[in-house]
Amino acid sequence: MYVIDIVVKGDEVEKMQKKSIILFNVSFGILIFLPPGWIVIVLVLVLETFLLSRYLENKKFYSPITKSVLLANIISGAAGIFLSSKHNGGWWLVCWFPWVSRNEVKFDDIQSFIIYFAVALIGSILIEILVNLLLLKKKFEISKITKGTLIANLFSNVIIIPIMYLISFLI
Q1: Which of 92, 101, 135, 140 is positioned for an S-S bond with 27, CB 3.0–4.6 A?
Q2: Which three-class secondary structure state does DSSP give residue 81?
Q3: pLDDT digits (tens, 9 = 90+) for 56-92
Q4: Mean pLDDT, rounded, for 154-171
Q5: Cα separation of 111 and 109, whole Å?
Q6: CA distance from start to end of the chain
Q7: % pLDDT > 90, the chain
Q8: CA 124/CA 1 separation, integer angstroms
Q9: Contact, 171 vs 100, CB < 8 A?
Q10: Confidence band for 38, pLDDT divided at 50, 70 and 90
Q11: Cα–Cα distance for residue pair 139/29, rounded to 1 Å
């Protein structure tokens, strides 16, 4: 239907392409709206919630922590979309990991990619720490929230990033 609209409206093609490109210029920009993307997101949320709940409350899942992790990841993802779109005119999604494929990464400029990856990952984790601190500080110590969020994020990223990059670079 979208393709038919573009053909029919002809003169608005450029405007429509620019709007589409902003959110769909990377693999995850497309996959986020498909079941495989949802599965990855749910797995990350479950893993981070489980790890943080175990660390802070010694339970498998604890409702206030689940809500905090969910909100922290939504805010982190929204910030990633906004900042990336403002910075480079496109979306390098950083909800839980920067997801790109060989279509987006030019390995002749690997240093820029590594710098971006580090900044995006650190920024994402810092946002999640801040949100978790704001929502959980009445029940848990600040140092434990910070350390627990860091552990949960690092662990989920160590597991998910290699899997996602293996998939992405095969696309």
Answers
A1: 101
A2: helix
A3: 999 999 999 999 999 999 898 888 777 766 665 555 5
A4: 73
A5: 5
A6: 25
A7: 35
A8: 35
A9: no
A10: confident
A11: 36
pLDDT-based confidence at residue 121 (cuts at 50, 70, 90): confident
Could you give the C-alpha distances from 141 to 2, 55, 60, 135, in angstroms and in order?
A: 51, 12, 19, 12
pTM: 0.70
The Cα–Cα gap between 143 and 93 comes to 28
Instruction: Please provide residue 170's backbone torsions phi and psi, each rounded to the nearest 5 degrees.
Output: -95, -10
Report helix angle 35-57 to 63-88, nearest 10: 130
β-sheet bridge partners, residue 98: 94
Residues 168, 164: Cα–Cα separation, whole Å? 6
pLDDT of residue 149: 96
Q: How many CA atoms lie within 13 A of 72 on its CB side?
A: 32
Half-sphere CA count of 108, side-chain side, radius 13 A? 0
d(CA 20, CA 60): 40
- DSSP tag of 138: T
